[in-house]
Amino acid sequence: MLRLWRHLTWPTWRDQPGRVVLAVVAVMLGVALAFGVQLLNGAALTEFARAARGINGQPDLIVRAATGPLTDADLVELLNRPEVAAANPVIEGRALWPGQETPQGTALSLQLIGVDPLALLASAAGARPLAPELVPQLDGTASPQGLGLLMGAQTLHLNAAAHRLLRAGQSTLTLRLPQPHGGAPRDVTFTVGGRIAAGNAPLAVLDIADAQALLGRLGALDRIDVQLAGGTDVTAWQRTLPARWRAMPPADEGARLADMTRAYRVNLGLLALMALFTGSFLVYAVLSLATAQRLPQWAMVGVLGVSARMRWRLILLEGAVIGALGSVLGLALGLGLAAGALQLMGSDLGLHGASSDSSALLFNQPLLAPAIACAALGLAATLLAALAPALTVRRIAPAQVLKGLGLPAGRAVPAWAGLALLAAGAALAWVPPLAGGLPVGAYLAMLCLLLGGLALVPALVRGLAALMGWLPAGALLMLARERSRDQAGEARRSLAGVLVALALAVAMTVMIGSFRESLQQWLDEALPADLYLRSALHAPLQPALIAAVSRAPDFTRVTQQRATRLRLAPGVEPVALTARELDAGGLPLVARWPGPATATPVWVNEAARDRDGLTPGHVFRAELPDSGGRAVDLQVMGVWRDYSRMDTAVWMHLPDYRRLSGDAATTELALTLAPGLTLDAARATLRRLGGDDIELAAAGELRALSLQIFDRSFAITVWLQAVALAVGLFGVIASQSAQALARKREFGLLRHLGVSRRALLKLLVLEAGLTGGAGAMAGLGLGLGLSTVLVFVVNPQSFHWSMDMHLPASRLAVLVGLAFAAAVGASLLAGRRALGADAVRAVREDA
């Protein structure tokens, strides 16, 4: 094998290194993207889980009230239980930081956490402190002495993200705190104390007594973190608690985020593997071209005694070397891409806070398993790509090849197999998603559609050749028709790369275009007002402000909205509930209940329909946790399209909500401007009425921001489409070159028979036009089929977002025209090289 490598493979690689380098680069890019995406996903989950553990601490159980807040009496009752070793009461809130703004230009809000220093001190005396990252640090380390800092009156202890916003030497900090029952916020000045390690976003910790007093929540608690005595059975003790408490193990926020983002991460990973998938066709083209160029050598060594098995193993070895080099370089490049992305976004992954440095964030996760998996994928892809050329070399008859009969005909794939694969793809598209919303059936359907389309290419070429019989007769036309009909199987191999790349590019173009068009229509429906107002503290708006805005002549309509929560069943986590005046618009429905309402009507998003079974007409009982846990009977009157979230959300008519809950608070206002009034004038009026305590957003600004985020999110897909299509087009050029070189003796014979070089070039153009047209048509048809699966199956199953199909005709025409022009241009380039004097000499050598 080494001698064969030295005499057959190495000279070709040495004389034509560019092709080998391109094949290695194709594998390298595919592996790098897959590995880099995996590392970034892992880093994001690791950092999010670390930040959540820092804030939530390490209790055995977190106790909350079944409805409403906990009280100090609940804390006393828990501490009196002999199984409780330590209990830390916690209250959470938000404050506005005057003078500080977010990158989006809105006022910065600071998260506040009130904790009990004595409870933390009691837990620190044990083996497992409850919340070590909430303890103020002395000399960069948390210690019991740091707990004493928490007892300072009106003293805030900031994390690194908040500390960076302080001016040099600043020792005090003024925050604007919300007040209960819609009271006017008030400014409070704090002393800046020590530093804490928790959190990525700006965060401050203070004594819980101060937090309760300053936030107007005396005697109220949000949660109690409980640490049990050694030997206590957590599950058994949990069952002894009264029904008014909800005790759950500390939520693994990393696992929760992993569940929420699983579909997105899988889709992004498969998108990254698209480059590796198309790169395998480039490897196939390079090895096929090398096989065609060395065909006489393969025949000669076959006559001299080299077995078919050794020839087959040598081609696979070439593929393995390309795959190994590409995989190793791809792993290094993927690591560099991930590190560069972390440096660009910050070690907090865009969360605008502080965390460990990017290198620690990158390497504090398992690297060996994903590296092995990505390298194995790269190697497997190249070995599969090398399999077809290896089988070709294994099947050659050396004596016939030496007589100039060219490459052996490949085994024909019957048309019924292609039709069966297409049928299987259509059937698999109906398979429900797995747990977590993974559309495995849809991806298998897309693979079957691609394979079925490839299998039907010969039949399509033969069909087009038959249609050419209706054209005026001519020698060149007859030769092109008969050659295309006889070598239809070769068309599948030569067009495989560009067909797959074109199909994927068409599918992604249609899916992205459909999504963007649907998003624009949704934004127009979901944002019917001109301007939107809410509290900068995300708290209820003051009644005086609502009344003043309603009286202002600048606005023809003021629509109130209440954002709150709804519990679909006892003991489950609440979901988002929005109560608004629905006659003002903003409800893009996709399904309606035609019958009468037998309970209070609500409208749910598609995630609620798919995940919770809330179909139109369904009647269910729910609880309003923010209104004392009142039980209400609701009926689903419709399903609305919701591109703003992937979780369950419910809308209710505002008068119905206020009647059921007794809650008259308002959290947002939707404002319609008077005719002729400018946005700047409206903003000035609202600033005069609400000051800096409000946030304003115009509908046009929200639309532009949403589309900007959409375009930025899908920018990588456009780049991957370009890479995949370029790889496929190069594969066409390489495949056409291989076929032209293998036909040297055929061209030489035609030259001896009197066919001119120009006529032979016309013949090649006719053949390339026939096969290229078949490939372009097949790629367009497959792409439309794949886009149908993406639009109507993958997106609804993964993200619970439906959309309407939209065909960007101009972009599709460019893609199809580019693929067709590449096939014809590649044939011309290869023909000019193959129709030289060597073709005539080849016939003389054969004689």
From TrEMBL:
Coiled coil regions in record: none
UniProt topology in membrane: Multi-pass membrane protein
Keywords: Cell membrane, Membrane, Transmembrane, Transmembrane helix
Organism for this UniProt entry: Pelomonas dachongensis
The keyword Transmembrane helix is assigned to this record: yes
Pfam families registered for this protein in UniProt: FtsX
InterPro entries: ABC3_permease_C, Membrane_comp_ABC_pdt
Transmembrane segments: 20-40, 266-289, 324-347, 367-391, 412-431, 443-473, 494-515, 718-742, 763-792, 812-831
Name the record gives this protein: ABC transporter permease
Start and end residues of each ABC3 transporter permease C-terminal domain: 270-397, 722-836
Localization terms from the record: Cell membrane
Acetylation keyword on record: no
